């Protein structure tokens, strides 16, 4: 493997069109159906290089169109093998796209299906969390393009429902995320199953030293395409952070959502249980919210995502499983309920908004314990994030935020969480409706327990002895008799 070459091309001029790349009329028709005419910078630079058969490392900000940057030239190259035969042998797997998450796999598969809908090429997606049999049946029928998560792909390899012996192109989408999730052994095993002669493409928003090391291990004379500074955030995304105490973070999120009357917002949490609790809390505030994380079934996750896209859900509370590859149009804002432990995840999270040149807001909530995480993020993106103040937010109230003058009296902290009030009454005290402590609650006590001890008496009135002598009428049995070992007299 040789050193990585780098292309340094200017941004795409407005007059460049997809038709300038020599793509098939069937592909151009599909792009017209989607309303696409001009390529993005990553697409304009990647498509010609991929069409030449070169290996590529593509780095671009999230939301700049990396999927089309590799899928369009792949479809164009595979058209030479396209046919309408019903025989599965005429439709072997020729292109393999690996993604770190189920949601990203589905997103890529939808785009690929749209791009090749006017061609005879077949594509499918395989991922875990669902029944493997329907997937196996589709692949046994023959498909040229497979989009897969690594674990489920290896399941199909073991069941012999897929053959990788004729793969001509391998794509690793969001490769850095796959390494973060521990997929390196699976990736190496998959690479070993592929033919030695093939074209390799890696696309991601960031390239860490570990990713570059992996790329050097299997890419041949790759061309690196970077359309933006590594780990840069989109210029049209307005970033701001608000500092609140840890126990008032949930109220701060509810306050921001209500004050700005936001719709179509993704709120990121670091933990699955935190996402579920926050979603329930927002629902109690009267908002349409749902959670999406790894403990949800695939059907539940997809249903929540589709409802969010249709506008039936206003707030989607998600862990980082949803931070990569989700292409949701008109997403005006993302909120970091928790700052991510990995600074690079911040770039991917806020990349959900401000996509394809649109503007967006990235709001983060942090407390004293998150100062180091915020410093790491600012060091990575090489800029200082604006500190803001939540005007009108009153965390000293009963629930932090005042809702039309008061908060519902029924609001209670979730089980296992600290109270959201800044001061808690002592145990045994409970505040009345005016906030004044009341006298400790006294449970009713049975008077019988307050009487002095009196020893029990026999029928004649005499006090019963503490240790009465054993009755003489019943002689004590010998232990040997109980064990069946007493000798006969």
Automatic annotation (TrEMBL):
A GO molecular function assigned to this protein is:
hydrolase activity
Q: Where is the Helicase ATP-binding domain?
A: 47-225
Q: Which GO terms describe its biological process?
A: response to temperature stimulus; ribosome assembly
**SMART domains noted in UniProt:** DEXDc, HELICc
Q: Where is the composition biased (Low complexity)?
A: 458-481
Q: Which residues form the DEAD-box RNA helicase Q domain?
A: 16-44
Sorted keywords for this record are: ATP-binding, Cytoplasm, Helicase, Hydrolase, Nucleotide-binding
- Catalytic activity as recorded in UniProt: ATP + H2O = ADP + phosphate + H(+)
Map motif Q motif onto the chain: 16-44
Indicate the segments forming the Helicase C-terminal domain, all copies: 236-401
Q: What Enzyme Commission number(s) appear in the record?
A: 3.6.4.13
- PANTHER family listed in its UniProt record: ATP-DEPENDENT RNA HELICASE RHLE, ATP-DEPENDENT RNA HELICASE RHLE-RELATED
Q: Which family does it belong to?
A: Belongs to the DEAD box helicase family.
| Protein name per the record | DEAD-box ATP-dependent RNA helicase RhpA
Q: Which organism is it from?
A: Pseudoduganella flava
- Show the taxonomic lineage: Bacteria, Pseudomonadati, Pseudomonadota, Betaproteobacteria, Burkholderiales
